[in-house]
Amino acid sequence: MVAGLPLLRRIVLAGMRAGFSRVLVQSDPVGIGRLLGGTAATALSNDDVGPAPDSRRRIVILSANVVPQPSWLRALRESEIEAERLYADTSLTAVIDTADPAAVLAVAARCRGAGELVEGLRARFDWTDLKPDDAGRFPLAAPSDRRPAEAWLLRSLIKQREGFMSRHFERKISLALTRRLAVTRVTPNAMTLVSLAIGLLGAPFFLSSSPAYQLAGALLFLTHSILDGCDGELARLKFMESPHGAILDFWGDNLVHVAVFACMAVGLSFVHAMAWPLALGALTIVATLGAAARASRQIMRDTPVGGDASWTARLAEAFASRDFIYLVVVLSAFGKAHWFLILASVGTPIFFLLLLWIGARQRA
Fold first, then answer.
1. What distance, in Å, lies between the first and last C-alpha atoms of the chain?
2. pTM score, two decimals?
């Protein structure tokens, strides 16, 4: 078991996520049936050793003691290599482009392991050393390597686009929680709902001008942000991502922001006995929902803004950072959380306008 999944199942799911059309496992079909359930993988059998197809095929061979990243397997599948030449590394990972895949499968069917298979293919094909990629795979030499492998997998879950505090504080907590949740039956959607509930629970505390109440609300808001990272981490770690889960996570997060802004507006209106804070709250909420609806794929996807990105894209990404929550915590400690609404009523519409501008420039 590695991070909540049997290693063989993790390898299979990574291969499927990497886009391989077929995943064949060299093992007893009876013994691995449970591990492969719900996947498109099958045990290698004599039925797979038939006439060669008309087109050339890329075959990637992976030892059953290697924990892979889907991105690494995808790179092996798509890399430029010489046809009819075997590329292999010391971890018994091998890649070959061949017009006779049945011949490779025939050798695999006769071998008792990846080492014997690679040696058999080296006798049949010219071969070259495959450059190892320590960032893409983690070989397990002994059971004691399981925990380092899990730590390696968890580090890979950190998104490239992260705020400073999110990367150096929140992620350390959320990854520690995710590591423990991975061995349970808790689903990513369940974590999303827990995070949503905690965030909504914290919003009413901002109706008060009391520092104690506001700080309690701010800490609940921060807890929501931390747990909001766990659902995505858990989904990526256990290959449980889904469009519905992503939608639930995204709009749940925005619902919490709207609730917090609304309560801040009402609380500030109580303090000053005036209606203008309600107008600021309405402006902030409309801009928040508009930005959520119009968020471009470039800003929302998990990629950093490159060096050639426009200053508008960089500024929009900076606005999207959730490090603002720490400002809410500091202000709340002095009973001034409502001040954040004034800042948000300026910054959120600017963010919305930037997204509209970036979208217009991309369509031009």
1. 50
2. 0.82
